[in-house]
Write a structure and sequence with these properties.
mainly beta; globular
Length: 102
């Protein structure tokens, strides 16, 4: 998800890596809103904190798991160009995107 945009499988094809370059990094900071509507951030560092937990989209139903657990193998970032249909009125812009290999 980018901002309030939800990406379907087909819409992921609207994310283009600028210059076809992906960079390896050791630390990423994840910003989020807490339960009491405050801003907070967590840092993932591949040298110290490898294990992460995120909420699961499969948390409904009797056998649904509320969380997914993963071990971070490495962290990447790239400059991407978003051409999502809902961004049609806006100029296409490049933005920084971090992603994890877990």
């Amino acid at each position: 998800m980018y901002g309030n945009l939800e990406f379907t499988d087909d819409e992921w094809n609207t994310v283009h890596i600028a210059g076809e370059q992906i960079y390896h990094c050791k630390i990423v900071q994840i910003n989020y809103t807490t339960y009491d509507i405050r801003h907070d951030a967590d840092t993932i560092n591949i040298w110290t904190y490898l294990d992460i937990m995120v909420t699961s989209p499969d948390s409904t139903g009797p056998n649904g798991e509320p969380y997914w657990y993963a071990c971070v193998i490495t962290i990447f970032h790239a400059v991407v160009l978003l051409t999502h249909p809902e961004l049609e009125g806006m100029a296409q812009s490049r933005t920084h995107m971090d992603f994890l290999w877990v």
